[in-house]
Amino acid sequence: MATFVAAIERRADVTSWLAGANAGLAVERELTGRLSLRIASPLLGASYSRERVEEVGQPAQTARVFSIQAIIAPRLELRLAF
After folding, report:
1. Does pLDDT of 5 surpass 90?
2. pLDDT(4) > 90
3. Is the pLDDT of residue 6 over 70?
4. Among 9, 38, 69, 70, whose Cα sits 20 to 30 Å from the Cα of 21?
């Protein structure tokens, strides 16, 4: 007994994009005339994305995602002005 498998070629067009922003807090202290110390951390992030998939013979599908994140990522920066 033989089994035959037919290959079907499907083509999909995908369009997507993503936009986002972060807000945070920073404190900077001057150590010398050209050297400063900065403590910073992002606190809040937001993003929006959209994806659209179009296949031949199928209705288009669209997905949208909006997210908000609480972020704590402290960093210590030593800055030199020149």
Report:
1. no
2. no
3. no
4. 38
For the record, the structure tokens of 69 come out as 């994140």
Q: Are the beta carbons of 19 and 46 closer than 8 angstroms?
A: no
Nearest-angstrom CA–CA distance, 22 and 33:
30
Q: What letter represents residue 33's amino acid?
A: G
Count the helices and strands in the chain (H runs, E runs): 0, 4
The CA dihedral of 81, 75, 21, 48, to the nearest 10 degrees, is 150
Q: Residue 27: what residue type?
A: V
Residues 52 and 60 sit within 8 Å (Cβ to Cβ): yes
Q: What is the DSSP letter of 79?
A: E
